[in-house]
Design goal:
The chain has five helices and ten strands. The chain is of the alpha+beta class. Helix 2 (42-49) crosses helix 3 (53-60) and helix 2 (42-49) crosses helix 4.
């Protein structure tokens, strides 16, 4: 690619400061792919976007360059943002893993203050250690100091009341807490 090549005009800037040349995107083909991914006819997509069917057909066939207003209508109709109209589709391969741990069947790891049941213990290369815990301790005096470690903890509370005692603030009594992310370097007692 040379400096005189029109496709070298397209540069993609990344957050880390690097950049790369981007390949020109066929907008008409992209719009058609988005429409077909929703199993919409040309008429349905045009109605959804508030455009004439003939206009949408011309855009898809590269016979017309849409105005910005038409691009906004298309994006709203397709329920995406305008930049997503110009973003090539990503890999459609679905990646994922599934491990089911039935209640009470995970490895048990009891301690003086907690009863831990490990979840998804057969799943390798996890980025976190999921477990279900029941707190045995009923007062701060039962703990042997603050619990501290690197990383974060995600807490999903299944109890009506929870007393959180953090090393840097007054005790906190919570009712119906849905989720909380804590930094264990602060020092935690549950």
């Amino acid at each position: 690619m040379t400096d005189n090549d029109p496709s070298s005009i397209i540069r993609i800037a990344r957050e880390n400061g690097s950049s790369e040349d981007g390949l020109p995107l066929d907008l008409g083909l992209r719009v058609r792919e988005l429409r077909k991914a929703r199993n919409w006819t040309l008429e349905q997509a045009a109605t959804q976007a508030g455009l004439a069917r003939s206009t949408l057909s011309k855009i898809e066939n590269g016979q017309m360059s849409p105005t910005y207003d038409a691009l906004k209508k298309l994006a709203i109709g397709l329920e995406i943002s305008v930049p997503q109209l110009f973003t090539p589709p990503c890999n459609t391969q679905i990646n994922g893993r599934l491990v089911v741990t039935k209640s009470g069947e995970g490895p048990q790891k009891p301690t003086v203050t907690y009863e831990h049941e490990l979840l998804a213990d057969t799943l390798t290369q996890k980025q976190m250690m999921p477990y279900r815990a029941r707190i045995r301790a009923r007062s701060v005096d039962e703990f042997d100091g603050w619990v501290r470690h690197d990383g974060e903890e995600f807490l999903y509370v299944l109890l009506v009341w929870l007393n959180s005692i953090l090393s840097f603030m007054n005790p906190l009594r919570c009712a119906v807490v849905i989720a909380l992310i804590m930094m264990p370097l602060w020092g935690i007692m549950w």
